[in-house]
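For the sake of clarity, the format in which proteins appear in this thesis is described at this point. Each number in the token line that follows is a code from a learned vocabulary of backbone shapes. One such record is shown here in full, so that the layout can be seen directly:
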Amino acid sequence: MKYLLTLLLIFANALKSEIFNSNSIVQPEVGQDGMVVSQHYLATDVGYSILKSGGNAYDASIAVAFALAVVLPRAGNIGGGGFMVMYDKKSDETFSIDYREKAPEFATKDMFLNDDGSVNTKRATQGILSIGVPGTVYGMWEVHQKFGSLPWEDLIKPAINLAEKGFKISPFMADVLNDQYEKLSNFKNFKRIFYSNYPVKIHQELKQPNLARTLKKISQNGAKGFYEGEVANLIAQYMNSNKGLISSSDLKNYRPVWRKPITGNYHEFKIVTMAPPSSGGIHIIQMLNILEKYNLSELGHNSPKYSALLSEVMKYAYADRSKYLGDPDFFKVPVKTLISKEYAEEINKKIQIGKITPANKILPGEAIQKESMDTTHFSIADKFGNLVGNTYTINSTYGSGIIIDGTGILMNNEMDDFVSAPGIPNQFGLLGGEANKIEPYKRPLSSMTPTLIFKNNQPILATGSPGGSYIITAVLQFLLNTLNFKMEISDATVVPRLHHQWKPDVLMLEHGFDVNHAQTIKSLGQPIYFTDPRTSLESIELKNNFFYGFGDTRRPDSKAKGL
């Protein structure tokens, strides 16, 4: 009997080990027929219900995107824009769509400059002039036209219900709203909807009837329900009455762009990620190319030498970002050079393990002839073999603060992601040059980095994050944690992260980073600063014929749910 029990225990442990990593500190969610991971539990539940009803990953993505516009208005949106990267099993191809916001026709490169040439940062980040032409609705519509399997109206219905019937405000949402009261209560429509009771209390019910009506128009008429007709007229009228720039013509003429994803190779893995005007994809591949020559495991995860090396690599990438990245429809971005192994080797010649290079000694590469903490990402996989990574935003927390009369649409403040003046950082400290200057119909540069990873031509990972300039380095470290250090995606997500963006010359370390290691890095000559978490990875891994999902605990409303 004792022998039998021993055998059963061994067998049980063997079965368990096929699913869970017993060495992992935090375990991911596991599913057999699909996985949804988003930054809000209600949106995750919406995506789950779509997959369960027979929809594919594209259907679920559309439903999640619209649901987030209701339950995560600080970042989820129909008044903003973003990027989606996809693997389509049927065609065995990868796709990406750029539905980033665009500058209005009458935007000018000096629209945020004072008479003395200085940047009016308030005008660039708050109010009517900070708004770019939104792209989310058209982006989702295009994805549905190309890959959707369920009726469009079925995908919008859950968001309509959440807006119409309401939902309970989470503790995290209440905290953020109360924290932003001083700024956002100045906008009358915002105050009426979100601050009808102040301070905002947890589990307080939030209904958005005007937003529900707008979503019904979109449900009935597709993209035209937003870019033409009643909703478009209300947006244009509001803009005209308040000296804004977006016109009916800007809305009617908006189109997303299907762009070829950029790809790279890192050891035995293939990286598929977003092309410009996202800067994230280029610099992920650039940094992985540089790091490929090092035995990172030997250096030790988050050790002083490892952290100093990452800091150096990040500096070079962000220096290049400041000069060479912009909307490829307006500026020739040297993509091939930036993601080449040869260019990485040129940078490697300048890097020495254990030595720090001051940022002012690093210039954008001579070999080559800003967004918010409140972006949001979701990853979705289905039983059919499709995989989606989507990152979208309205830029700052709750965007411009402007809600269009009669629509419930909270508008972005993406115009600040352009360069208002070369050499002047945006609200997130990012520098830029001529490549990212304001021009009519141009898309601003972004750090959003939805990324898919393949091994042996099969998808194995989808990831992405909010966090403005921190997005790129968060995704980089997640990939190193999983691909190099073989961490479960849950552990790869929760371990402390670091960030350097060239200027200012400060290495940002999350609280929880080893203090002794931090002091060692500082002694090498690298200024350091401890910071609160600014990113939130939402990731899926495919292995052992299971789907593994994990929502970053840095944002407490995140949730993964598997079928």
